[in-house]
UniProtKB/TrEMBL annotation:
Signal peptide per UniProt: 1-39
Domain of life assignment: Bacteria
Protein name: Uncharacterized protein
Organism: Zymomonas mobilis subsp. mobilis (strain ATCC 10988 / DSM 424 / LMG 404 / NCIMB 8938 / NRRL B-806 / ZM1)
Region of interest called Disordered, as start-end residue ranges on this chain: 66-132
Compositionally biased spans, kind Polar residues: 116-132
Record keywords, A-Z: Signal
Biased composition (Low complexity): 85-99
């Protein structure tokens, strides 16, 4: 009877056991005792010992099962506590319960109750088209997105879009999705009346924003943004359009909120760029255009810099930026670095000049870089009021060249100062339905800050770089007829002045000369050395946020730009002009928005 009862008990334990160890012990005991009863079993003490061993084994099984249940409950409780928002622990003053080894974690799921809607409205999108410069179009709007995951105490946000643009131009520019506005040809070129059609995905963009808060008042951020606007020597569009990634922006920022103090270091939009609010990065007042070279009249660069800013209650701002310098040089005749300028009036020979070198280590060896004695310096103040955002700034630049005067055997170093003053504004006209924005920059040697790329400098008769006077300006209207539609219209102008001297042969040299024979500019295959005086443009476009949901967003854009180029007048008052048209049809998919 004892063995039958033991077998029944162990069989029940086998069915109810929740651990592999309990199952194994039960099976061993069944195998050991499920035998026919022996007739000669007489020793009661031996039976008592066996019973004691069985009870001890069963007690061990129960202890192991209880310990496993406690460990399982502790894991479930820890995982539940990790999903609580950070504010729940910080408000109560409790310490974080997340174990130290878990250095990488996913953000908590959205546990907010889902409200029923009779209209089955889609989830809210982070794309906001009510702004005068929607970050989803001009940047990547990564600030508006939740963290995807965290690494230690650093949260990681991902942004970007995949793009396809169909580009048509009335003249053949052999250009990708960025239009070189000053290169629209005159009628002498066979490309003048030869339109261009091109498809491109080069502006597909990705970004990542890293954020950390070492203290309640200090915030650290790092931002990286790239696209495929690069073109290596082996790149072509014949069979595989293998265009290369490039750095658009890459910087980190330090913010002390109690002091209103901000520092930026890295590659970002220049402080010269107009802003829609404050002076912080990713708040630039960039036009929501599809062309990657912006539009004529918009002041900007995107270069390495060191920036210091101070705000007062996020209403009044002052910023100082030291930015990577570079200059463009134009001259009426081709004089390479190391060549000799045409002789000035009354002279028999001109000086030899040096002003640029080919790129060296980690620079582009296929282009040239000017001599740069100091960074460009931008000092800007801004104010945010009920009536809009307003700003003024000053720009300082330095240009350097070497010259070897006639008869001399050593070079002389020359440094010339340039720069200008500028202003910008963003004004709401009808609440969040219509905004007016504008910017202007005037000075000498400021050509690099305009999309047209008018020259910064030319040469005078002594071989010194002479900054060219220029004005860059634009004004735009941005409308929002519905939450999913954005319309915009911009007008812009860039114009340059003269920097010239009279040569020994009676001809003018420099930039803006007016004694050239330019009659060939209007004849196919004619000779045309016209120099650009003014470019004026008009742009009209819009975006439609056509789809959004848990899968992201899809947007479509349409843009038309008309440009008119005016040259300096030549001999016999001939003033060549040309015009151009561009049309963009763009589609973008935002998987994170």
């Amino acid at each position: 009877m004892f063995f039958q009862e033991t077998f029944r008990l162990l069989k029940g334990r086998l069915k109810s056991s929740r651990t592999g160890l309990g199952s194994m012990i039960a099976l061993l005991l069944i195998g050991a005792f499920h035998q026919p009863a022996l007739a000669d079993e007489k020793d009661d003490q031996e039976l008592a010992a066996i019973k004691l061993q069985i009870r001890q084994l069963m007690e061990k099984v129960d202890a192991i099962e209880q310990r496993k249940e406690k460990e399982k409950s502790a894991v479930i409780q820890t995982n539940t506590e990790r999903q609580l928002p950070p504010s729940s622990s910080s408000d109560s003053g409790a310490k974080s319960l997340s174990p130290a080894p878990h250095w990488m974690s996913l953000p908590p799921p959205n546990t907010a109750p889902i409200k029923a809607s009779s209209q089955n409205s889609p989830p809210h999108s982070s794309i906001d088209l009510k702004s005068s410069s929607p970050a989803a179009i001009t940047q990547t709007a990564v600030d508006r997105l939740p963290p995807v995951f965290s690494i230690g105490n650093v949260s990681v946000k991902l942004g970007g879009f995949v793009e396809l643009s169909n580009i048509w131009r009335s003249s053949n520019m052999t250009s990708g999705p960025a239009t070189a506005w000053n290169n629209f040809p005159y009628a002498n070129s066979p490309n003048h009346g030869l339109d261009e059609e091109r498809l491109s995905s080069q502006l597909t963009r990705s970004s990542v924003l890293l954020e950390a808060d070492p203290t309640k008042s200090i915030q650290l951020q790092a931002y990286l943004e790239s696209d495929f606007g690069g073109a290596a020597n082996t790149t072509n569009s014949i069979q595989i359009s293998g265009y290369t990634p490039r750095l658009r922006q890459g910087y980190f920022t330090f913010t002390q909120n109690e002091w209103g103090f901000h520092v930026l270091m890295g590659q970002a939009w220049s402080l010269v760029t107009n802003y829609s609010k404050g002076l912080l990065p990713r708040q630039e007042q960039l036009p929501p255009v599809t062309d990657n070279n912006q539009i004529p009249g918009i002041s900007f660069t995107r270069v390495p810099q060191i920036r210091f800013e101070k705000d007062w209650n996020k209403k009044y701002w002052v910023g100082l930026s030291l930015e990577d310098p570079q200059a463009t040089v134009a001259f009426s005749s081709s004089v390479p670095s190391g060549g000799r300028l045409p002789a000035a009036y009354g002279e028999t020979m001109g000086p030899k000049i040096f002003y640029e070198n080919s790129g060296g280590v980690l620079l582009n060896s296929n282009t040239v870089y000017t001599y740069n004695p100091a960074p460009d310096i931008v000092l800007k103040t801004a104010a945010d009021t009920r009536f809009g955002h307003y700003e003024i700034f000053g720009l300082a630049r330095w240009f350097r060249s070497l010259s070897v005067p006639v008869g001399a055997t050593t070079s002389e170093k020359h440094t010339h100062f340039g720069g200008g003053i500028g202003a910008g504004m963003t004004v709401p006209l009808i609440a969040d339905k219509l905004q007016l924005t504008g910017n202007i920059l005037a000075g000498e040697g400021i050509g690099r800050y305009g999309p047209t790329m008018l020259p910064d400098t030319s040469f005078n008769s002594r071989g010194l770089l002479s900054p060219v006077p220029e004005i860059i300006g634009a004004m735009g209207l941005i409308g929002h007829p519905t939450p999913s539609i954005l319309l915009y219209s911009y007008g812009g102008v860039e114009t340059a002045g003269r920097r010239r001297y009279m040569g020994a042969d009676g001809s003018q040299y420099g930039y803006g000369i007016d004694d050239q024979d330019l009659s060939g500019c209007n004849v196919e295959f004619g000779v045309c050395n016209a120099q650009t005086h003014t470019l004026a443009s008009f742009t009209l476009g819009g975006w439609w946020h056509m789809l959004h949901g848990s899968y992201g967003s899809v947007m479509g854009g349409l843009q038309y730009t008309y440009i008119k180029k005016f040259a300096f007048s030549g001999a016999n008052a001939v003033r060549p002009t040309t015009s151009g048209n561009t049309l963009y049809v763009t589609f973008r998919y935002f998987p994170f928005q």
